[in-house]
Amino acid sequence: MTALVTGGAGFIGSNLVDALASRGDKVRVLDDLSTGRKENLRPDAPFVRGSVADAAAVAGAMKGVEVVYHLAAVVSVQQCLEDPVTANEVNVTGTARILRAAADAGVRRVVFASSAAVYGDSPVLPKREDLPPEPLSTYAVAKLAGEQLGRSAGRVEFVALRFFNVYGPRQNPKSQYAAAIPIFVDALEAGRPLPVFGDGTQTRDFTFVRDVVAGLLLAADAGGIDGRVFNLATGRSITVSDLGYALGRAAGRPVDFEFKPPRPGEILHSSADVSLAERFLGYRARIPLDEGLAETVKWFRGRRGD
To answer: Active-site residue 139, yes or no?
Structure first.
């Protein structure tokens, strides 16, 4: 099979590219390297440098492709709030261009990386796919728009996967928009307090990247799921403070916190109902949190040459 991974130089995308190549698939990467990293690129995966908002780049990358994994996006809630025009050009217009080019190229299926952010801060837990969306940020609105575009396009099979909090090797702790776990690891290794936006009681469903990649592969191949949306997570949540202590154990470091004001657009509590993904995809997260955190810490240390 020949696959196109948009955002394939990024954190999740590059792990997906490795998995596809390892099983013998031909893989092409489309990435503008705005947040993706050259060192994540495989030498045996053809690379097209360009934005998903660029129609010519998208059309060129799409030739001869059977499945598209559409992961390219402006993924930071804060960045989307600060620059909603650029974010929507990538996250909404870019998705529309991917869908059109995929249909024109005869692609069999597009697997779209959506987000748990579409649920907003509804008090209903765990989050089920049939809950009314209540997006609180421009990022969440754009992801919901991408889902609706794909489900209404009708010219190519489409599956959306709502990622919760994905972590693991290749996350970038240096970005001002970085996620909690790489920031925490970076702080632990430097002996600094862990920065927490809020009081630390907010909960998240942290999912190791290898489990997310497994779900992506299943979504590309499973039958009878055209137009469906699935949560991709563990089905278990933990407070941000408890996550910090778990990381401290994995790193063998003492833990202290620096609490900061909550950031706008971020939700308080999040946990996933993954029963639909289990039923239709055969998906189940298999990496325990402690194991995933230990592997993540090991990767960060290896990257520093420790």
So the answer is: yes
Mean pLDDT computed over 131-159: 93
**Does any domain span residue 258?**
yes
**Six-digit token pair at 140?**
């969440």
Q: Which ranges constitute the DSSP H helices of the chain? A: 11-22, 55-62, 77-82, 84-88, 94-104, 138-153, 180-190, 209-221, 240-251, 275-281, 289-304
pLDDT tens digits, residue range 40-56?
999 999 999 999 999 99
Asked if residue 251 and residue 132 are part of one domain, the reply reads: no
The one catalytic residue in 69, 119, 139, 283 is 139
Q: What does pTM read for this prediction?
A: 0.94
Domain housing 185: 180-202+237-269+294-304
- pLDDT of residue 271 exceeding 70, the answer is yes
Place of tokens 């698939």: 25
Pairwise CA distance, residues 219 & 161, whole Å: 8
DSSP structural state of residue 98: H
| Total number of domains constituting the chain | 2
Query: Are both 230 and 262 inside the same structural domain?
Result: no
The answer to whether residue 86 is domain-embedded is yes
